[in-house]
Write a structure and sequence with these properties.
Length: 295
């Protein structure tokens, strides 16, 4: 691992968390072992990661949520630069999947005591992602949230309630080696990791190291069917839900007449009726607890 820790901190985290982070860093490291760089605007983490790559013996550390992580991996993908996470977001899906502590002290300690392991990434329409990419209702909700200042489970839940009853299924043409047909779907998620965030496992059998995506196609549900769907997600049994079609693949193309948006790890992006997704094996070097054998 790099001998210098280049911390990219989402400036939107609370002042109390910033103060706690700096206190813990001063306790665990000497001042020449790390530098702190605060983001100043949306997308700034990309520029900071590019700056870090120009330095030698650096480990890049994302301090924030899945959005901060997602920006940084656009730069670190397919490089040998080590990457670490101090989770301070609302969902923290990747951190939970990788058993990275969500408390600041243990997460900082992991920078010293963790091990470096290679994980797979996905790439959707030239956007890298770690956990999942989705089209349909989840992408629609992420696009809706993108135009607000608030984040978190409460905000996500409110937008789900606002749009659930009025949302119309699209018919997707799905092309992969394992599955090729047109299918009406409420949402379609291509998962590299297990979690959406908040403990909801969209693909409980997914692995970041098996060289495959877990694809979850969710059919239209009425309000009574949606309740067991949510429960199954939190109980790690969504792959058994009767309203889901579940299969594995390494590459998939999705087409839809109303496919205007897709989301990667919760961030919405525009598209024009098509989303092409491929797996990039061993594309990111991530620091995880040394007790973890498989991700």
């Amino acid at each position: 691992m790099g001998t210098h820790f280049f911390l990219i901190v989402n400036s939107r985290i609370s002042n109390s968390k910033k103060e706690e982070l700096q206190k813990v860093l001063q306790e665990k490291f000497s001042l020449n072992e790390y530098t702190i760089h605060f983001t100043e605007y949306a997308g700034h983490a990309v520029g900071l990661a590019q700056l870090a790559l120009q330095l030698e013996n650096v480990t890049v550390v994302a301090v924030g949520g899945d959005g901060t992580v997602n920006e940084i991996i656009q730069v670190l993908a397919n490089t040998s630069t080590p990457f670490a996470i101090i989770p301070m977001g609302s969902g923290n899906g990747l951190a939970r999947h990788c058993h990275i502590p969500v408390d600041i002290g243990p997460a900082v300690e992991l920078l010293k005591n963790g091990k470096l392991t290679a994980i797979d990434l996905g790439k959707a329409n030239e956007k890298f992602f770690i956990s999942n990419v989705g089209v349909g209702f989840d992408a629609f909700v992420c696009e809706s949230i993108r135009h607000t200042k608030s984040r978190g489970l409460k905000m996500y839940f409110l937008h789900v309630l606002k749009h659930y009853l009025s949302y119309q299924n699209d018919i997707y043409e799905i092309e992969s080696a394992e599955y090729h047909q047109s299918q009406s779907a409420f949402m379609l998620n291509v998962a590299n990791g297990k979690e959406f965030g908040y403990g909801f496992k969209i693909a409980p059998n997914a692995s970041l190291q098996d060289g495959y995506f877990d694809v979850v196609l969710v059919k239209k549900m009425n309000i009574f069917q949606s309740i067991p769907f949510v429960i199954d997600g939190w109980k790690s049994r969504l792959h058994l839900n009767k309203n889901c079609i579940y299969f594995k693949t390494q590459k998939i193309k999705i087409k839809g007449k109303k496919l205007y948006y897709f989301q990667t790890d919760g961030d919405a992006h525009c598209c024009d009726g098509i989303c092409e997704i491929k797996l990039c094996q061993n594309a990111l070097q991530l620091i995880v607890p040394d007790t973890i054998k498989n991700l």
